Amino acid sequence: SPWQGSCCSQTTNISTETMDIAKYRIVLLGESGVGKTALVSQFMTSEYMNTYDASLDDEFGEKTVSILLDGEESEMVFIDHPSSEMSVENSLSTYEPHAAVVVYSVVDRATFKAAEEILNYLWRESYTQEKTVILVGNKVDLARARVITNTEGKSLAASRDCKYIETSSGIQHNVDELLVGILKQIRLRETREKK
Ligand code: GDP
């Protein structure tokens, strides 16, 4: 498993009593240039994808995809947070996302610092305690230029009680794993809350 953290290997028992397709909103946070757009584009080509209707995409960069996982279909709406125009705070209150994916580039320390600040904010606002937060170290294909080690990323995530995964949208490394991980974490939390 590419996942490092406490509870990702747990098996989930999904209740199928409802016929409605669950719809989840996921906001992507992080500095410009870290690969958020590239990751979401890769999600649209996933083998778990059931349907992708481009007409559902809105003009603000929201992409809606239907994912079939463990025999259950869910709609995932990915919102590429426009960091220049909107604060993280605004983004959370506007979209009320089920999950926040905080992306940095492993070859750029400033983006790691920015990710840390976002995680701190999510923690202070109790978002982390209530929703799914995943820290993503992207661009691992650029191995020789890497400045943030796996250990450093992992320990930041652990200190803020969130999941950690390293990806490359360039060479499609762990991109499906990230997609599935987001959905599994959201479902896990929902199952726990229903109890
Ligand atoms: P965003 O501003 O966070 O949405 O970043 P983009 O998805 O637009 O990516 C910024 C630049 O980084 C583009 O030139 C991408 O091709 C490049 N990029 C994105 N992901 C990767 C990756 O995993 N590896 C490499 N080498 N380049 C990447």
TrEMBL record:
<comment type="similarity">
    <text>Belongs to the small GTPase superfamily. RGK family.</text>
</comment>
<protein>
    <recommendedName>
        <fullName>GTP-binding protein REM 1</fullName>
    </recommendedName>
</protein>
